[in-house]
Amino acid sequence: MKIGIIGLGKMGEAIVLGMAKGAKSHIQGTTHTKESAQKVSRALKIKCHTDNAKLAADSDLLILCVKPHQVEKVMEEILPNLKKKHLLISICASITTEQLQGWTNGIPKVVRAMPNTPCLIREGMTVLSPGAGVKSADLNVAEKIFAPLGRTAVVEESLMDGVTGLSGCGPAYIYLIIEALSEAGVKVGLKREIATLLAAQTLLGSAKMVLDRGVHPAALKDEVTTPAGCTIDGLMALEEGKLRVTLIKAVLAAATRSAALRS
Q1: Cα 183 to the chain's mean position, in Å?
Q2: How does DSSP assign 163-199, residue by residue?
Q3: How far is CA 62 from the centre of its chain?
Q4: Looking at the whole model, is its pTM more than 0.90?
Q5: Does residue 143 share a domain with residue 17?
């Protein structure tokens, strides 16, 4: 299968690097300028140019990695070369499969994907949503593209704005939490680098406990919280500061913004 990546930026690079070595000979991509195309070609050892229409003609599967406001224009460029054989996977935030099918006259099958930035280190979360007419075999192809970059899940498209607000934007929330915990470590006398290490590794280990043990986070929290111990005092401070409701509001705000980008 010949794969074309339109808008080969950081996430596109992660997809290429996640491919099996033998598959890379079947991948090519486009960037906005000849200079960036040459740079990508040298770095990834794949063919890269600036002609989206040619890329579509030369590919069976297209991965769309451009900014949301660029999507309609790119679809106009590639439309003359689209065939029924094409599978189009879009990682463009907020853009629906219905919009993509409308801009392409319903020719290709469309899968919407929302990866997050930890995909760059193969610890990401990618959520997929199939458009009309997408078969299980097509969805399996999409899952195989993103599986090497972390974990995948499939949801109905009506939930994708929520996915954007939670896992798409979520790394930024976690970085803020790590930064705050690191500041607290400095406040109690730790060196900055040690405080950041403690904060980041604690979040990493705690997340792995949730995933590996399959236990509700509340139950794991109770394991740490001994009667009359230190943890309960810390939890009380977090509840007083409304951390729980603030994080919920953050996801809702980002999800609402995701929906608004379409209007």
Answers
A1: 28
A2: HIIIIITHHHHHHHHHHHHHHHHHHTT--HHHHHHHH
A3: 17
A4: yes
A5: yes
